[in-house]
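Example record for the data management plan.
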Amino acid sequence: MLAYMGPDGTFSHQAAMDWSQGKEELVEYKTLKALIRAVDEGEVHRAIVPIENSIEGSVNATVDALALEANVYITGEYVLRVSENIMAKPGVGREDIKIITSHPQPIGQCSRILEEKYSHAITEPAASTAQAAQRAAASDGSVACIGAAVAAKLYGLEIIEKDCADEGNNSTRFVIIEKQPSTKVTEHDKTSIAFTLDNKPGALYHAIELLYRANINMLRIESRPVKEALGKYIFLIDIEGNIDDASIYFALDKIKRHTEFYKFLGSYAY
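Corresponding structural encoding:
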């Protein structure tokens, strides 16, 4: 069973269908927190959650939950190319559209075509792209929406403008989370960790230097506020390789001994 954040017709739903390829039962949760908590409490075996977008950056709610709140592990990842589409009821023309609705992110990501071809229409935010699709389907044809192609199939809409985002490289990285870490080792693995450091000069530099000395490639680093005190941060790092590799295991063990808090988030194929 694979859980995802709904409602149906969102890009998270699309990612769940693509990753599972029909081999797992899909179950919808309304919020990201409820979804991650369901895995943490054993309600579902695994879930797929968005963690990073190539344009908008990190999904902070996911990052915070994995690093600070839930006791779950990343066991895989899936990168979805995000294709934004303008959709309306079948037979509706561009000139018939008076309102275009979607989640605020897709509206912002499609600003160029909205200005050039739909300046006569007003834009209105929705809680999700699926909610926007439902509104367009229930309208008299004067409401269009922006969202995933899967929403057109689910709600009986027609794609008027296909793949119409301003940037063509819009992708979202999703991670698979489970209660137990993956034990699989492949030739293309990454390992994720989270940690906090003493507030002293060179603390972060020293941690990164340990990776450099072990000839370990760092793929990504970011920081998030711990929220318990102003100026206190937790660092999240992705490195190339699997923790079963001795050089990685011992390098991370050294980092762990120099941290206030340390959390292994998983080794997984990417």
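Summary line stored alongside the record: The first helix runs from residue 11 to 20.
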